Amino acid sequence: MRHRSVIMAALAALSLLAAACGGGGDGGAGADGGQAAGGTSEAGGATEGGGATEGGGDYQITLIPGVIGDEFYVTMECGAREAASELGVTLDVQGADEFAPPAQIPILQAVVAQQPDAILIAPTDVQALQGPIEQAAAQGIEIVLVDTTLEDPSVAVSRIASDNLEGGRQAADALAELVGEQGPVLVVNVNPGISTTDARQKGFEEGIAEYPDIEYLGTEFSNNEPARAAEIVNATLAAEPDLAGVFGTNLFSAQGAAIGARRAGAEIDVVGFDAGPAQVEQLEEGLVQALIAQRPAEIGRQGIEQAVAALNGEEVTEEISTDFFTVTQDNLESPEAQEALYRSEC
Questions:
Q1: DSSP code for 5
Q2: Which residues pair with 290 in a beta bridge?
Q3: Residue 338 and residue 19: Cα distance in Å, rounded?
Q4: How do strand 245-248 and strand 269-273 relate by DSSP bridges?
Q5: What's the predicted TM-score (pTM) here?
Q6: CA-CA distance, 110 to 106, in Å (whole number)?
Q7: How does pLDDT run across 174-218, given as a tens digit for each residue?
Q8: Helices (H), the chain
Q9: Interior CA angle at 149 toward 188 and 98, to 5°?
Q10: How far is Cα 224 from Cα 315, in angstroms, rounded to an integer?
């Protein structure tokens, strides 16, 4: 746990007061004097400890999601806010409006300049964020990796994420069942170099290889743009009119794949990863046939708990994996499925 002097505590309090006076949805000032996109903040409520840790005292913790506005990260924020309230810590959320290192790195640098006690961050690239996060840790800030990771994650006291390799295998099984274990299938991924979606792709490839009558056409990258994912599916259908199924490795990939299939008038099965409101609507409409839902609220909650444990000098769990739930039209109304769906706001 880092110990601050009385002077630093007073300065931190003045800084928080100034941020509150100039607050709003535009977020805090960036390192170059600009505004960090999409920042929000909220003080924790209860002062008594809860969960696996003691109370958090006056700790300041910042969550930096991969991108602001994505329902996965919104749901993660909700879980983090609930834990922060229970543990009595102040949680600030600062994020970029684009899932890309050039957008995230200035946000991280601006947060480090504010000297929080801990940072929860979903790195947008395993290599590009390595140095900036190491620089943050060198300032005495406890680092917890949430959702995504780094090439060398030892800089963090804990990392919490879905077992994305297993999630990819689960997606392969779901798609294989939908297509009757035969026919060509395609993966639409985001960009190479993102730890989570790379693992989902690998898990899918390992899983689909167990079905000898399924032809794996490979992976195309959408740059996290639904329109590009739709174009990929349209182009694949032109070359492979018998395309049987598509696995979209994240919300926008699956959303775009479904749109592309609809525009082409093709009846193909689409398995998505994540369960945001737009995807659930597509599931209800029959555009997407299955969703592999993660547990982002649990990732956020455990991220806060691990950060507070580290700050309190308590035992920290180095790596935590969360599970999945496959949502279909048949089980959508079940309590288990409803609990797995993502939120658009807390």
A1: P
A2: 271
A3: 37
A4: parallel
A5: 0.70
A6: 6
A7: 999 999 999 999 999 999 988 889 999 999 999 999 999 999 999
A8: 6-21, 71-87, 101-113, 130-138, 164-178, 195-208, 226-239, 251-264, 277-285, 296-311, 335-340
A9: 60
A10: 37
